[in-house]
Amino acid sequence: MVLEADLVVIGAGPAGMAAARTAADAGLSVLLLDEQPTAGGQIYRDVERATGRRSAVLGKDFTRGLDLVRELGHPNIRHIRSAVVWQIEAGNRLTFTADGAATLASFKRLLIATGALERPMPVPGWTLPGVMTAGAAQILLKQSGIVCEDAVLAGSGPLLYLVAAQMCRAGSPPLALIETQTFGDRLSAVRHGFGAFRGWRMLAKGLGLLSEIRRAGVKRYAGARDIAIDGEGRAEAIRFTESGRQQRIACATVLLHHGVVPNTQATRSIGIPHRWNDRQHAFVPECDAWGRTSVGDIFIAGDGGGIGGAEAAVLTGRLAALEIAVDLGRLSRAARNNAAAPIRRRLEKELAIRPFIDAAYPPFPEALAPADETIVCRCEEVTAGDIRGYAALGCLGPNQTKAFGRSGMGSCQGRYCGLTVTELLSAANGRTQDETGYYRIRPPLKPVTLGELAAVNTWKNKEPAE
Amino acid sequence: MKTVSPFRELEPNGEKVRIRFAGQELLLRAGGNLAAELLAAGIVPFRRTSVSGAPRNPHCMMGACFDCLVEIDGVTRQACMSEVTEGMEISRPNAGAEDGA
User: Fold this and answer.
1) Which residue in A132, A119, A118 sits closest to A367, CA to CA?
2) Chain A hits for B51, Cβ within 8 Å
3) pTM to 2 decimals?
C-alpha cells in the first residue's frame, strides 16, 4: 500500500520535529520518517529515554529536546521509526524501508530535514579502530550511557568543549584537548565582534564549559599541527606539534572534530543545485527564505540547508511548515506572515553568532589538504596522493575519480570523502569548488536488500498515529 | 580479542541477552545499540576492509560512515543502526579463515 500524506518529513531532528508539529497544527496530515528508533535527531538523540544520570551529564541543552519530541503527540502526525528513505522520485513519491519491507509514500510536499554530518577529518591513522568523531562519543553517551575512557579530543570547534565537559561530568575527563585553531583565528574572529556580542549567551556557555574542563585538570593545547594517530590494529597514541615542540600522548580513543557540514545526500539525489559556501567551507543546497527549492514541491529545513545549529533548525522548520500550509490552502499569506515575523527575528539572533564561530574555529588546514599518504576515501582506501595523481592525469571532477580509482564508490557513497576530494581537485587544478563540483548522488541513498524489496509491507493509511 | 574495553557504561544495568560475535558468546543489553554494546564488550575490530584487510571499528555512530558493518544472521548491516536482540549471530563481513576461531 502507498502511504499518503500532505507533508512527508525526512528526519526527526529539531527541524523535522518542529515542522511536523507546525504543519499538523495547520491541519495538514504529516508522515515523519526517521532512521532512528526514537525521535530527536543526533542533537537530541534518544532524549525520551535519557535517565537521571545521563541527563545530568548531558545538561539542560540536551533535555530541552524533550519538549520537541512531546510536540509530536498530535493526531495529524504519524511518526514511523527506524525508517530509512532511500529513493525520492518524480511524481511526489519516495521509498523507504522499515520493519524489513520497502514501502512507497506519496506526498503533496516533501521537507528534507536530514541535518548535518561531521566534517571528515582525514589525518594519518584516522581509519584505525578507536578513532571516532567527537559526535560519535556524544551519541554513545546520549543513547547508550557509555563514556569513552583514556580518550583525547582533537580538532576545533565549540562541540569539543561540550564533549570534554560532559566527559568530565561523567567522571572520565579526556586525557587532553588538542585544538588546531590559532591565535590568528581568534584575532580574525574579533572582526565579527558585534555578532559575537549578540550571541553572548552562547559565549557565556562556552566560558562555563571551559572552566569545567579546567577544573577537571584537562590539559589543553592550541594551534596543534602535524596531527597523526599511531597504533598497531587500533589507536594507541596521538602525535602532534605545538609551538614547534613534538608531543605524543598514549590513549585508547581519539575523538576528532572540526565542524559540521550539511548532509546533502538526499538534496543532491534529486538535482537541487548546491553552491559552495566559503564561510562554512561546505556545499549548501539552494533554497529561498522559506526553505523552498527549485525542485517541485520540495523544501529543506535545518542544518541540511546550511549550518545554523539546533535552535535555528527549529525555526527554519517552522517557517517551511508555514509556507507549505499556504501552498496547500490551509493558511492565508497574512496569517503566515504574522506567524513568521517573530520566528524570523529569533532566527536572525541565532545566526548572528555563526560568522564569529566560523572564523574563530576554522577547519584544520592539514585535514582539508591531507598529506599524500593519508587515506581520504575510507571505504576504498584511496589516498590524497592518489587523488592528486588523478588530477595530474586530467581528472577535473569528483565523479571522474570513481573511474580512476573507485573513490566515493564504497558503502558510504562519498559521505566521508566527497568534500575532501572536491578540495584536493580544486587545489590541484586551480579551479573553484563550484567548478570542481561533487559526486553525483544516486539512489538507493542507503543499501537495500532484495529481501526488503520483495517483502510486502503491512503499513496502512489511516492507522492511528504512533 | 580484547576484553577490557575503554568504553564504560554509566549505568551497567538492564536485561542482558546472549548473542554470538565471530563465534564468541557475549552478554549485551537487550534493545541496546548494537555498535555501542559491542564497543562496551571490547570488540576490536568489527570488520576488516576488503581492499587491504585493515581493521575497522565504528567511526561516526550515526549511520553515515559504514565502518561498523557486520554480518547479522547472514545480512551485512550497520551495527550502529541495529538493536541487540536475543540470539543474534554476528560475524565479520567477508571473514576469511582467520576469523574462524
Assistant:
1) A119
2) 380-381
3) 0.96
